[in-house]
Specification:
This protein is mainly beta. The protein is built from 2 helices and 24 strands.
Length: about 325
Amino acid sequence: MNRFSVCIVSLLILLMLAATPAPAVLVYRGITIPGVNDFAISNSNDSGDLVGAYANADGSEHAFAYIGGHFSDIAYPGAALTVVTGLNNLGQVSGWQFIPGVNVGSSFIWQAGAFTPFDFPGSPGTLAFGINDAGQIAGDVYDQYYANNQAFLAGRGILDTYAVPGAPDTYGGPITNSGLRGVTGIFADGRYISYILGLDKAVLATVSLAGFAESYINGINDAGLSVLNGKDADGTAHGFLRDLDGTLTALAFPGAASTSADDIDSLGRVYGTYLSPDGLRHGFVAVDVPEPASIVLLAAGITAFAIMRRRHRLRGGAS
């Protein structure tokens, strides 16, 4: 092997080292909504629009949408509780509501102030979780006793349910534009295990967290990146970003008492909620940036390759 070949091999090794999987390095930015001091994010879209819940001065919780810089209070007519859970790039919001004595949970789509009811056929209770740009809705259905949950997918000619094998309850989760979706199975022994499913309901990845009283998959994008939340026994949330190789990165907004992960968009931006020391909730967005060492190694490798290639040509390929 001549010296040029040895250099090329060395360069490839250098680039492989630079690309070695490692926990993400996240840069955080707080999100403010004018006039709202205490709010939690539940979902986002690629434009940075948000849906979630906010608290009034009296402590009462209300659903909201913050789309195109415009804040909307969302309250289903006659409902004692309105929860919004999903948002697509068309401004369509998925959610559910509860009317005592009328239903055990019924879902809806909200857009520009108008509600469209949605219930999975034949199910006493329907909780919509996510909605994609094609209008497909993912969530879970259950019986009149709030038990026997199964994940569902509805829209674009699809209407089906899915139960994690061996799990008494399966909760539906997010759905992407390509049809990837997340579900969480709750087993009789107390384990919470989440999965990423394809359109054919094939399990593409297991994305569970260990060591928590509860854990759920909250967001996924078409690249397969996902975010999860683990909860302690006291309800404290711990958010995580999961890379394609399974590497988990714990989310920690600087100075926060706790940090949850609520969604990840197609650009890989993570949206979440953090609890400040004063007990108020705030939104944030976090972006994964390459570690400086990896950038230096990569730049050095590319520069070295250019120099070696030029010298090799000038010398006519001599060793």
